[in-house]
Amino acid sequence: MRQLFNTLSAFLLILAISTEIAIAQKDSTVLNQSVEVMKAYHPSISNAKKISLMPVIDDTTRYSPEFIYSIDSKPIRSGFTASPIKPADVNKESYKDLGLGYLKLGAGTSTTAYGEFFLNLPQSKNATFGLHLRHLSSDGTIKLAAGDKVNAPFSQNNAAISSSLDIGNTVLTTDLSYDRDAVNYYGYPAAIPAKIDTISSIRYGLKQVYEKGDLRVALKSIEKNQGNLVFNSGIRLGFFDSKTGQKEASGGFFGKFDYNFGQVHGILDLAYDHYSTDSITLEKTQLPGTKNEDWIRIAPSVRLNGDNWSLRGGINFVSSAEKSEGSTTKLYPDFDFNFRPVEGILTLYAGLKGDLRNNCYGDIALGNYWSDPRHNIHSTDYNYVVTGGLKGKISRELSYNLGVTFSQVKNMYFYTQKSYFTSSSNPLIYISDPLNYSNEFGVVYNNAKITDFSAEFSYVSGKDLSVVLKGNYYNYKLDVLTFAPQKPNFILSAFASVRILDKLTGFADLDVIGNRKAQVFNINPFASPVSRDQVMQIDPSIQLNLGATYELTHNFKLFGRVDNLLNRPNEQWLGYASQGLRLMGGATISF
Predict the structure, then answer these.
(1) What are residue 102's DSSP bridge partners?
(2) Which CATH superfamily hosts domain 2-288+300-322+330-590?
(3) Segment holding 170, helix H or strand E
(4) For residue 66, which of 79, 88, 374, 466 sits 20 to 30 Å off, Cα-Cα?
(5) Nearest to residue 266, comparing CAs of 304, 234, 240?
(6) pLDDT digit string (tens) for 342-392?
(7) For residues 462 and 471, what is the distance between their CA atoms, to the nearest angstrom?
């Protein structure tokens, strides 16, 4: 699969470069406009990771004028990813002003190195092409909660190619991406044992590397020539690889079709995917093996539109099959409703959905770099997800969204850890024997009822000021576990970008993650001694970042930033603290 992926990648790159092509996309992050929140709301179980060639770094300073909703929030990786200043600032330029692209270089404390390259070819009549490369690495030390200082190097490398070609009344698009993340197992939830390298149950100091590639080729209708039928369909291929030997290959096709019958719209979403994952622990044998899964999704629906309302209703059919575990077939409702009693001021929305989510291996490993490499993740069944709320604009500059989501979930997974007795096998002294802790994370499943209250406010005043405030409060009720391991009870975030002088802009962002609890299960070789399972507290995570950009000339800018200004040892997972105060500076050259 990986050889096929590389061959196709090379072919598409040669094809794209040999065509007279250009980039002509709309900059969706431009702040010089009011945030539009009046469009139809479509609550979703999850959003697939989208490849974007916009010059935006995935960091804590990102700003998006579109509201994003999800029912399952993960703790933010605050502080682990070194966060260079984002290229797009409040005084943004449109794509036509960016020319061919830019080169951005930066360096900072903790031996942090950052580089980014963006290229779009000169404008063409019927084709586009973009290239985005990015590198980020750091080799600093981190102070853990128990006081130990450890080396915590990491690196991130990303590459993405996107192209499109007009073919009659359709557009052929290709999106190709490659990501490589490398980390060390450096965390430990207590004081590090003196001879930790000799303990087989601990991966301390070992390196983990994840590689992920995706290829998506689609044919879709041209927006300016759309008739009764609007479509977007194609194929996708992917691979995932890890240093510890786990591999995953995937492939399939997808299609979305929307036909205007006049009074109503008929919509059909369908997809087929095959996943093959090697060297993971199989459920029945508890031995390493290969898991093959086939997934089919068919979701027909009908949409009706009125002057100030819209209603869409349908079903979501999902079927999964795996040779050793059998097959599962599910049918869910799929409804959403929007009503605008006051045009431009207030929109009421509601939704009822369900889904069977495929927790593929690669996504879970990237969600927690230090998860058990041989973990076998099962599907999560969202029996139903009920969403409701209101959104709109208080003024031209100020937008809001208030919502609540209630979900009933079967087999939701949570990350946990294990502890072991050191060497004693005498049950009489077992209770006083010291413990060793695993610094990799296993997975447990539990049925859950989740309530999520959310609020978001956005203020945008031309090019000079933008402020975004967002908060979520979560309540978990589980069948077996007494709490939701590693899950916060609330998350707050704030971002502000302001023009200080004509050529000087600055930003500030704040992320707060509430209290969390971690579950540590004790592995006891004897059945009779008292259990030493533990519940460990994770302090709130608070990260404050500040930065600024100064435009020396139209094509040359300097930037600088301070990350984790409060110098807090924020833990993203139990035992894994993040970097402290970090300084970074650099320059951007546009061409």
Answers:
(1) 118, 590
(2) TonB-dependent receptor, beta-barrel domain (2.40.170.20)
(3) strand 170-184
(4) 79
(5) 304
(6) 988 999 999 999 999 999 899 889 999 999 998 888 899 999 999 999 999
(7) 24
